[in-house]
Amino acid sequence: MPKKRITLADIARVDGSHVTTVSLALRNSQKLPQSTRERIQSLAQEMGYAPDPMLRALVSYRESMRDHPNGQVLAYVTNWTTRWGWKETTAHPDFYRGACKAAKNLGYTLEHFWMRESGLSHGRLNQILEARGIQGVVIASHSREFEDSLQLNWDQFSAVKIDFFPHQPQLHNITNDQCGIIRLAVQRARAAGYKRIGMVMHRGWDHSVDRMWSAGFLVEQELIPQCDRIPICLFPNAEPVENWINEGKGEALVDEEIFYPWLEKWQPEVIISHPAFVLPRLQQKGIRVPEDISFIDIFLEDQTGEYAGVRQNHETVGALSVEILAGRLMQNKRGVPKIPTTTFVEGTWVPGRSMPVLNEPALQAVGC
Fold first, then answer.
1. Cis link prior to 166 (omega < 30° from 0)?
2. What is the pTM of this model?
3. Judging by beta carbons within 10 Å of its beta carbon (0-12, 13-18, 19+), is residue 261 exposed, middle or buried?
C-alpha cells in the first residue's frame, strides 16, 4: 500500500498551529519569526513531508507578485570607479549581457545599481530595494580596489555573486573555471607536442580570481619533467602593491625588464597568456608567432581562427547567476547561506594558427 502523503494540515495539527502558519514557515516567509520557521521546518522533515514542487512554485510566484508589485525586477549591483567602467574590461560586459538575456527569458527585468552613485550608501540602497519590493540581487563587477563588505539587510534578499569580489558576504558564487581553463591550455599544448610551456600573467588578473590562474598552471606543471618546467612570468613587480592591484586593462603590457630576461633564460616553445600583454613585446624583438614561438590565448575572443585558445563563456556565467537567483526566489530562500557554493563555468578549447600541432606528442613524462 502506498504511504499516506503528509499534508500541511497534518503538520499543523501536530504543531498546534494554523495551516497558514505552516504554509508560511515551509516557504521560509519573513513574516514569521526565524524560530517559528525553523521549528515547523524541522517538524515537517521529521514527519516526512514532501512538497509538490509545481504547486509550491505557483504559490511562491503568486505570493511574490501580490506582495511586491516590482518582484519581477532584479538588482544588478556593481562597484567600479565609474558607473560603466566595468564595460571597458574583459569578461564583465559579457557577464551583464548574459544576465540580461536570462532575466528576459525568465520574465524578469535587470536594473543596474552603482554603489558609488552620489548619496548611495549601503543603507540607502537597502531602503531603495526594500521600498520597491526588489527581492533578488546579483552582486557583480566589484573592482578589487574596493574590497568593501556589502552591508545590506541580507535577510530581506535572495542574492548571488559573480566572480570573487567582494569576499564578504559569502554568497553563492558563479564564476569562470580559471583553474580548469589554464589546465586545459597546458594539456592541449602537451598533446600538440610542446614540452617547454610558459605562462605570462598580470598579477592583478591572478589576484582578482584568488590566484586560480597560477594554481591551475602549477598543478599541470607537476606532470612535466623537472627540466622542462618554466616559472610563471608575473608582472608588474610585487612591490609596491599599488603597482598591480588596479585592474589589468587589456592594453597592459608585460614589463620589458621582467619579460625579456625570462624569455631568454627559459626559452619557452609556447606561451599561454593574453595577446595584448605579450604579442607587442614579441614583435619589438622581431619574434614571430607561430614561426618562432607558439601562443595560446586564455582570454580568447577572436573568431577568425588566428589564435588557439580557450573561450571562457562569460555570458554563460551571467546567465547562470540569474537562473540560480530565480531558483532561490522561487523557493523563498533569503539571507547569507550557511554553506555557500561556487558554480564554475568551464572554458571551450578552440584550435588556431598560433599553435600548430607538432609531429611528436609529449604526453609521457620522461626523465631529462
1. yes
2. 0.77
3. exposed
